[in-house]
Amino acid sequence: MKNLLQDVARRAEGYIENLPYRRVGPTPEDLEALEALNGPLPEHPTSADEVLDLLDRYGSKATVASTGGRYFGFVTGGALPATLAANWMAGAWDQNAFSHANSPVAVILENIALGWMTDLFHLSPGTGGALVTGATMANFTGLAAGRHALLQNAGWDVEEKGLFGAPAFPVIVGAEAHPTLYKSLALLGLGRNRVITVPVDDQGRMRADAFPTLDTPAIVCLQAGNVNTGAFDPIAELCKRTHAAGGWVHIDGAFGLWTRIVPDLAHLTDGLEQADSMATDGHKWLNVPYDCGIAFVKNPTALRETMAISAAYLPQTAQREPRDYNPESSRRARGIEVWAAIRSLGREGLAGMIERNCRLTRRFADRLKTGGCEILNDVVLNQALVSFGTPEKTLATVKRIQEDGTCWCGSTVWQGKTAMRISVSSWATTEADIDHSAEAILRCARA
Ligand SMILES: Cc1ncc(COP(=O)(O)O)c(C=O)c1O
Predict the structure, then answer these.
(1) Mean pLDDT of the 402-406 span
(2) Least buried of 262, 311, 381, 389, by fewest C-beta within 10 Å?
(3) Using CA atoms, how far apart are residues 4 and 87, in angstroms rounded to an integer?
(4) Domain boundary among 341, 373, 391
(5) Residue 316 confidence (pLDDT)
(6) In which element (H, E) is residue 416 found?
(7) Number of folded domains that form the chain
(8) Nearest atom in ligand 1 to 137's CA
(9) Is residue 64 located within the same domain as residue 183?
């Protein structure tokens, strides 16, 4: 075991030290070489040293270097040093965060982490929370609590009776809601297509003037941070209008919620503290290793009544048992890395990281604009949309950038226009990374 762990530490150190010098995406040859990890089902044991060697020899080259400073795809955070170390420690501990009986340390760290985030996001003390796989499941969790509360108010116990025959209620989303929000609605039996869709403006913000007049309680899904533009829905006003009709506001803040920590950006989420539930990701702007999503529900009883389980073999305690607040049961102890991220950076360090990412995104957009590219969105956050001309030219340029390997950006279609997406979400990105990447992008655009 000792040699194995020393070996893995040495190999991981080599991987991380090489990040600034390697291409971001793997080559087709690196991917083809993964075939060496295939083969017939092993009938006999292989030593752990050899298993590790195979993984490193073939796997490391085939990774996407998304934990380095020049990965700008999707919305992808790196892994802060303290969180990687915590992840290794947690792996050695191998704790199940199901309940106190399984792991007091996992539950206590999770509780501390949830309490710290409640403070960071200026939520009410005592807000309910759950650490799940990602924002998709965090949206699911918040919306499940909303479904529970609205139907309970209508005299229907949805957990006991299911949705067949339940009183109907409207679900309202913006036209630019994230596709995974529809998945959560579908999983909850609320339907992808029976939603009322509110038109958005040119940045993807829900238009308050087009929001329906509510005369019945509804679940209203707002967004804090559009995946393409970074824009925020008008939260304060729509919370007020939803609550006046007895409804439930859920906010998808997969990355945008973290702007609450930055004094200069906090106005973007004005009114968010009034929302009933919200979702965010740890693996995006908190820069913890995959996977980690976080759900918050203002009324912890609603969350508990939605998720609680009981059985004779499960000890009943007076403490918060994660199994009663979470859609998952046995699960990895994500609170350890969240605790480590916040403990290592503190409020100030977290705000600095988010601010720096936003400043670097503006620098990136300025460089590309000066080089002749068109920036399609107002760069208010860490997201920028770039057009290189026609859709064909933009897609060809994105392909060339990915093949070039200096950095990695994906493509999108924003309100009918084909664009390249840039998301600067990693603590590891430096000014030099931005300048080097902008040069490579302009070179690919000219080619
Ligand atoms: C606004 C928004 N919601 C939800 C998600 C889904 O997050 P996850 O993949 O962590 O489930 C994303 C991912 O980019 C997002 O940007």
Answers:
(1) 98
(2) 311
(3) 17
(4) 341
(5) 87
(6) none
(7) 2
(8) 11
(9) no
Average pLDDT, the chain: 98
* DSSP class of 55: I
Q: Give me the pLDDT at residue 260, please.
A: 98
Note whether 164 and 47 are same-domain residues: no
**What is the rounded distance in angstroms from the CA atom of residue 255 to the CA atom of residue 281?**
6
Q: Which protein residue has the closest C-alpha to ligand 1 atom 12?
A: 254
Range of the domain at 12: 2-68
Residues 152-172: b if buried by 16+ CB within 10 A, e if exposed: eeeebebeeeeeeebeebbbb
How many whole angstroms from 95 Cα to the centroid of ligand 1? 26
Which ligand 1 atom is nearest residue 284's CA? 10
- Give the model confidence (pLDDT) of 353-386 as tens digits: 999 999 999 999 999 999 999 999 999 999 999 9
The CATH number given to whatever domain includes residue 265 is 3.40.640.10
Q: Which residues contact 28 (CB under 8 A, 6 or more apart)?
A: none
Confidence of residue 95 (pLDDT cuts 50, 70, 90): very high
What backbone phi and psi angles, to 5 degrees, belong to 277? -150, 160
pTM for this entry: 0.98
Distance CA 107, CA 315 (A): 14
Q: Is the CB of 206 under 6 A from ligand 1?
A: no
Supply the DSSP symbol for 56.
I
- Characterize 375-405 residue by residue with b for buried, 16 or more Cβ atoms within 10 angstroms of its Cβ, and e for exposed: bbbebbbbbbbbbbeeeeebebbbebbbebb
Residue 282: pLDDT band (50, 70, 90) is very high
Name the closest-CA residue to atom 10, ligand 1.
134
